[in-house]
């Protein structure tokens, strides 16, 4: 297993290159990071184009959900976006929080920060700022955010427990998050998990869904809900790069699976309040509703 610093550098270098590509080029590969496949377009990403606040120049096609759609952002609130990229989710959040609110984007790739700042300046958004830093050591004070959002980023971070701890620290008591991410059900073949390129491509860095939810519970969050869930179908031409024909057949039987989920949770309203949530009680508000386009 590669060391944490080495894995971070792999992701940082990959996303620096992605920042210089177009949306179509990014979306034609798995989370913008693997060998292009004409069958993979839009498999992970959701369509933002009809979302209020959407800025096409800030959409690099790297997400796996629409966390801002579920984030319950109110006017005047402070919102933080983890792994803000070129700023798309920040600008959507800014539409919800209004001119009286504040949005902070955090990203550890300098060229992404530069791209996002240019976009914000073009739009004249004085209440949206972008800070360079790791999301497992956020450059913000304690208890500052009403809402935290993130789109297909935590799965890229080696120490997810540390990130979730940072989310708890930064949220105000009573604040909440809505995060879209990639998780697994069952065990992926070693060839997928160990390949650095697939790691940067959102899949091999993902953990089990049950473990993901348990980390959130263990940190002390409450009212944990899976707001949306959809399966991720990896095309045969990509799987064939890592698996034998027999392994591909087994993989496609969905005995194991890769999923995009959007998870919501709240920080208790007082510092000493303890949540009472059992893993078996996690709710799913929306899993492929008719005509929702999530399946």
The shape, in one word, is globular
Mean pLDDT: 78
Instruction: Based on the coordinates given, report the CATH architecture.
Output: 3-Layer(aba) Sandwich
Report the C-alpha radius of gyration, rounded: 18 Å
Number of alpha- plus pi-helical segments? 11
The total tally of domains equals: 1
Regions with little confidence, pLDDT below 50 for 5+ residues: 26-30, 32-43, 271-282, 284-295
3D architecture notes:
- With 295 residues, the protein is an alpha/beta fold.
- It has one domain (4-266, 276-284): Rossmann fold (3-Layer(aba) Sandwich), CATH 3.40.50.
- Helix content is 31%, strand content 20%.
- The protein has 11 helices and 8 strands.
- It has helices at 4-18, 23-27, 67-70, 88-97, 110-123, 160-170, 190-194, 196-200, 209-219, 236-239, 245-251; strands at 78-82, 102-107, 128-132, 145-151, 171-185, 222-231, 257-266, 283-284.
- The protein has an 8-stranded mixed sheet with strand order 3-2-1-4-5-7-6-8, with helices on both faces.
- α4 (88-97) links the parallel β1 (78-82) and β2 (102-107).
- The model is unreliable at 26-30, 32-43, 271-282 and 284-295 (pLDDT under 50).
């Amino acid at each position: 297993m590669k060391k944490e610093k080495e894995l971070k550098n792999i992701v940082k270098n990959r996303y620096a290159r992605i920042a210089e590509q177009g949306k179509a080029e990014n979306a034609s590969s798995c989370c913008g990071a693997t060998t292009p496949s004409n069958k993979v377009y839009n498999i992970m990403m959701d369509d933002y184009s009809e979302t209020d606040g959407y800025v096409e120049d800030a959409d690099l096609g790297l997400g796996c959900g629409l966390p801002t759609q579920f984030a319950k952002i109110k006017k005047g609130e402070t919102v933080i976006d983890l792994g803000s990229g070129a700023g798309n989710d920040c600008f959507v959040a800014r539409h919800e929080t209004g001119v009286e609110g504040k949005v902070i984007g955090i990203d550890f790739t300098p060229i992404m920060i530069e791209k996002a700042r240019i976009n914000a300046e073009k739009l004249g958004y004085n209440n949206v700022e972008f800070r360079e830093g790791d999301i497992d050591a956020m450059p913000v004070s304690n208890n500052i955010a009403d809402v935290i959002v993130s789109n297909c980023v935590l799965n890229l971070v080696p120490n997810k427990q540390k990130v979730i701890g940072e989310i708890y620290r930064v949220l105000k008591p009573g604040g909440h998050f809505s995060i879209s991410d990639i998780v697994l059900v069952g065990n992926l073949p070693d060839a997928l998990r160990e390949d650095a390129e697939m790691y940067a491509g959102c899949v091999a860095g993902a953990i089990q869904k049950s473990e993901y939810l348990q980390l959130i519970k263990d940190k002390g969050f409450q009212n944990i809900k899976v707001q949306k869930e959809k399966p991720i179908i990896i095309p045969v031409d990509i799987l064939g790069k890592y698996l034998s024909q027999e392994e591909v057949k087994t993989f496609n039987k969905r005995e194991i699976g890769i999923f995009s989920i959007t998870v919501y949770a709240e920080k208790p309203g007082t510092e000493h309040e303890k949540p009472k949530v059992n893993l078996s009680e996690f709710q799913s508000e929306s899993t492929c509703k008719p005509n929702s386009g999530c399946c």
